[in-house]
């Protein structure tokens, strides 16, 4: 329970909250140092049960199980270390091999020469086929056994008290269950209404789907009918065009249709041309006759003279 108090004697209305009512600071009671109660009691710590017995430099004896467990952990650590070293060496060799493959190879030497390895480092070192290997080992001290830490048990404080709670003192079934029942009934009705609305919506969707399918089938039949009609009209037009061409060709062959230019040339131009040619020939013939008559008269006149 939290309470709110205002500081007395202050003009400001500053409020504060607390879990427990405020209490005054408890001062330690005065004890006479010369009395038996106030006199400090001195004792030898070696008689205290909390002090460890024995010297501090001797190793604590270990059980065989603890020693085997320690040796097993040491062997496992060495094995993991060797595996890590081996894995690192394999990765290093793989990287060196990949780097060597990526580098461009040196062209082969010409005839009469050979390639040799030459150190280009600033500080030369002796190259040996055998690598000097030195083995060293070390051993860590075994873990020392120590007594098991006792569980922490807090010091009991305060006084025990008890109380009797009769049936119905803290919980009244009717008053506590009515709101829960109201919520459950309301939720049940709401869920039922939602399910009914969902079923009606699904039924409406199915009806709309059926109407859409029916309309789609009708539109498909109408499209097929229009396609058939268009195809029939196209075929009729093609047949009509072909028929019209055949009829006109036949009439043209039979002479029912004549070209106007040809008709004018045959029936207008050619007769006029023939008449003009005949007139021109007649003029030339008349001129020849006149010339012949003149020549004949001249010859006759010369013969008579």
TrEMBL record:
Subcellular location(s) per record: Cytoplasm, Cytoskeleton, Flagellum axoneme
Parts forming coiled coils: 67-137, 209-254
Cellular component terms per the entry's GO annotation: cilium
UniProt keyword Magnesium, yes or no: no
Family according to the record: Belongs to the flagellar radial spoke RSP3 family.
Originating organism: Trypanosoma vivax (strain Y486)
Superkingdom to which the source organism belongs: Eukaryota
Keywords associated with the record: Cell projection, Cilium, Coiled coil, Cytoplasm, Cytoskeleton, Flagellum, Phosphoprotein
Main location: cytoplasm
Name assigned to this protein: Putative radial spoke protein 3
């Amino acid at each position: 329970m939290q309470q709110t108090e205002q500081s007395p004697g202050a003009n400001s209305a500053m409020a504060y909250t607390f879990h427990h009512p405020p209490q005054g600071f408890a001062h330690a009671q005065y004890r006479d140092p010369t009395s038996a109660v106030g006199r400090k009691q001195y004792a030898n710590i070696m008689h205290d049960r909390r002090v460890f017995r024995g010297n501090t430099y001797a190793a604590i004896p270990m059980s065989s199980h603890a020693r085997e467990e320690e040796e097993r952990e040491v062997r496992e650590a060495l094995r993991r270390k060797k595996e890590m070293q081996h894995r690192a060496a394999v990765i290093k060799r793989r990287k060196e091999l990949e780097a060597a493959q990526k580098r461009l190879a040196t062209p082969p030497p010409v005839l009469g020469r050979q390639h040799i390895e030459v150190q280009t480092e600033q500080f030369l070192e002796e190259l040996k086929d055998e690598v000097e290997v030195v083995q060293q080992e070390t051993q860590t001290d075994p873990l020392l056994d120590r007594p098991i830490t006792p569980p922490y048990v807090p010091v009991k404080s305060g006084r025990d008290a008890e109380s009797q709670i009769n049936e119905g003192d803290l919980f009244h079934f009717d008053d506590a269950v009515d709101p829960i029942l109201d919520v459950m009934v309301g939720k049940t009705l709401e869920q039922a209404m939602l399910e009914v609305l969902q079923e009606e919506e699904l039924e409406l969707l199915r009806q709309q789907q059926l109407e859409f399918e029916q309309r789609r089938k009708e539109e498909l039949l109408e499209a097929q009918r229009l396609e058939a009609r268009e195809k029939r009209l196209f075929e009729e037009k093609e047949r009509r065009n072909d028929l019209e061409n055949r009829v006109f060709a036949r009439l043209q062959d039979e002479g029912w249709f004549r070209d106007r230019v040809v008709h004018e040339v045959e029936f207008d131009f050619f007769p006029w041309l023939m008449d003009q040619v005949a007139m021109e020939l007649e003029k030339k013939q008349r001129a020849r006759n006149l010339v012949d008559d003149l020549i004949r008269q001249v010859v006759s006149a010369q013969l008579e003279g």
